[in-house]
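Figure-free illustration: sequence to structure, shown twice.
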Amino acid sequence: MAKTLTTPSLRLAYDFTHGHLRAEGRLAECAATGQSPAPLRLVWHQIYPEKLAAAEELAERAVAVSRAHDYEQACALIGQAIDLDPLNPKLRATRSHWETYAELVRAIRSEKLDPAAVISWAAERGIGSDQLRSLWHALFPERGTRAVQLAKRAAAAIWERQPDVAVATGCEALQLDPFNALLRQAVARWRQAE
């Protein structure tokens, strides 16, 4: 028993098989000391090799689901993968990222959408306007097509010296494409021209 407790890999194996995983604490310690969690994962995988294969399969399914912008389901699947591969910091980071996007999707789909609040919230989390707009168009592709048509009509109205028509049409386009920063700026300039 003394050898088990003094040999790091044997101690880990003992801890892992006796319910003393403490995954988050061990990963935090690795991050704080600059050590790689690879030795921890190696011992885990030696003890539970079947869990690694199942975790990889779940992670692949989660990635596929995330590509369809179903971040709620992706988080659920990646959570199951973490249960099977709890010492994998990449899975945990991915889940954290997707949780942010799941919250963003809920805000975007809200009936009381406040584009300015969503833009501010996203920016605080490092999500740029291009990413936000891409997500909007992925969730509502039909609105983007109509917004482009309206934006073109608004631009034509400016050329025809009809700023009031341009503003009204531009505002209608913004309802369909609320995260279009260029359109928002153009509408603001058109308002000044009225």
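We now fold a second protein in the same way, so the two outputs can be compared directly.
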Amino acid sequence: MKSLYLRIWVIVALTLALGAAITRLAWGITTASQGGSIAIIILLMVAILVTYALLLYLAIKPSLEKLKSLAVAILATVIAGGGIIGSIIHFIRFVSSPRVSSPLSPLIASLLMASGVVICGLILWVVWRVRKGKKV
């Protein structure tokens, strides 16, 4: 990604998507009535902002060495951790909700939760391996 125009295009696209997502989530905070909903929304907002910061950092000065830096490892770990915490809160609130109408809904939620835990573990394993200097 050596072209300046391509970098600007990526930054503009990311900024527009981020603006829409954060606006929608902020709107969700104003209508949320329970603390769990607010916690999920705040975790989502933090994860989106951290992901945006990482992508912006890589779009401005792309380098494979930056991917191995401690800052990127911390950002990836924070994103994965926030995502798994948010999904656990959502899972607990969803499965115990009386609005679950289909018997397949808890099954689907359980499968999504399991995949999130596996993906989080995979991200942490990759970050650990890259930080130790081993091949992934």
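Summary for the second example: The chain has a mean pLDDT of 77.
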